[in-house]
Amino acid sequence: MKKILITGGAGFIGSHVVRLFVNRHSDYHVFNLDKLTYAGNLANLTDIEQAPNYTFLKGDIVDAAFVDGLFAEHRFDDVIHLAAESHVDRSITDPLSFVYTNVVGTANLLNAARRTWQDDLPNHLFYHISTDEVYGSLHNPEEFFTEETPYDPQSPYSASKAGSDHLVRAYYNTYKMPVVITNCSNNYGPNQFPEKLIPLCIHNIAHNKPLPIYGKGENVRDWLYVVDHARAIDVVFHQGKPGETYNIGGFNEWRNIDLVRLLCRIMDRKLGRPEGESEKLITYVTDRAGHDLRYAIDAKKIMHELGWKPSLQFEEGLEKTVDWYLSNTEWLTNVTSGAYKHYYQGQYESR
Ligand code: NAD
Ligand code: DAU
């Protein structure tokens, strides 16, 4: 059985990727390495935690000695690297954490993988998960991000992700390490930490709290259901060409204000409120510093070359997401109160 290391598997996207690999690929033993920061939550994985082909490893990718030791012990065959500090607003107040985890952490993983694989490099794959934010902001409505769009990161978060992408490419060019990178648009769906726009608004609507819209709400994001992203990662892992980049997105652009209004209408219906009730919670607040205007992914390469396409229409995915949050109030209460940390971190620290 081959061994795959998935980093950041207790987070939002990582947990969906871990579940998919554990359930679909019995030829792999899945090792989930996660530091369990505020964003990591093992409650995301209770359904697969007893699976025979799954092991959780708690640890910090910034700790080079720890990462080296882990590779020496387990000799992973392949890596899918998702662990990161992921929230743009946090990167504005605390940029260094993003440099450590996203840049140094990625470098540590690349180094350990190179050392472990040096005698048979072509038999391995280092798959790095990145973001469309590295391309910067689009201002011409006709334009899309393609794999050839030059990098132009604007926030400390996107700059740190761009730095990690460059390192991964450098390992391909310099050491011939087989690597692949995907740059995906905004994800939404179950298990997303409620600091991000969609779960934050679902939580606040349910609790009659203000819905903070940065600036005029005219910024555009391109949304993809998280399970469709996990499916794309599976396809790229198995069929992607080493050295290549693939953009992932659903051709699904929304202005923030229109998206929040749609969410309000869905929530009114689900909560039995009069139409228009939740929209009254919309509150315009000071804009995010350096707020990118528009992201839009051209996903034709992955669609044409690897045959992937999204399975869900946006309204359908949003309904599923709302239903998940409304029927998992305990998950939401635990993450907003921080209660899950005490239980899960205590459990693993004592081992
Ligand atoms: P997340 O914040 O929900 O999860 C990140 C996970 O990484 C958490 O479980 C956290 O505990 C872990 N982690 C953080 N620092 C670590 C460290 N030093 N060592 C080990 N583990 C650590 O993030 P997400 O939204 O699931 O994003 C996952 C990846 O996908 C990131 O690389 C992100 O840049 C990328 N991405 C995210 C989106 C999106 O819309 N969320 C879109 C495109 C790409
Ligand atoms: O594009 C991919 C990126 O999408 C990922 O790389 C990031 O990890 C992920 O966090 C996400 O970044 P965004 O900054 O686009 O996501 P966020 O949910 O924070 O914000 C979405 C949009 O909504 C953005 O234009 C800012 C705005 N916003 C956000 C919040 C949290 C608000 O207007 N109000 C809010 O309270």
TrEMBL record:
Organism: uncultured Cytophagales bacterium
Lineage: Bacteria, Pseudomonadati, Bacteroidota, Sphingobacteriia, Sphingobacteriales
Molecular function terms from GO: dTDP-glucose 4,6-dehydratase activity
Stretches that traverse the bilayer: none
Name of this chain's protein: dTDP-glucose 4,6-dehydratase
NCBIfam families: dTDP_gluc_dehyt (TIGR01181)
EC number(s) stated in the UniProt entry for this protein: 4.2.1.46
Family classification: Belongs to the NAD(P)-dependent epimerase/dehydratase family. dTDP-glucose dehydratase subfamily.
InterPro entries on file: dTDP_Gluc_deHydtase, NAD(P)-bd_dom, NAD(P)-bd_dom_sf
Catalytic activity: dTDP-alpha-D-glucose = dTDP-4-dehydro-6-deoxy-alpha-D-glucose + H2O
The entry's keywords: Lyase, NAD
